[in-house]
């Protein structure tokens, strides 16, 4: 499980840097300021959760069950939240806005629940 968390965290971190650079350089000429800011929000949240996955994978004090739940919540949450933001900000999902739009808050909720699972795991630990 730790390996899977570390690989996912590293992948999300690496792609966040690539997408951030892409947004700052290539998309700067294509998107307006609001769209670019929205795109950057997706990049930021992807990077925050890349670091979160790396922490969870590296910290031995978290139960294996919690790590597994956190992995799936955060993995799916990043794909839904940041992925939908990338599509909406760039207009790539223009014909699917009614479908893609609701996915963003679902992704955000999954990210929040992932953090909540970690909080519960910390409360359950004995001092």
UniProtKB/TrEMBL annotation:
Keywords assigned: Membrane, Transmembrane, Transmembrane helix
Principal localisation: membrane
Membrane disposition: Multi-pass membrane protein
Pfam families linked: DUF423
Entry's Gene Ontology cellular component terms: plasma membrane
Subcellular location, record wording: Membrane
Transmembrane feature ranges: 45-62, 69-93, 99-123
Assigned protein family: Belongs to the UPF0382 family.
Name of this protein: DUF423 domain-containing protein
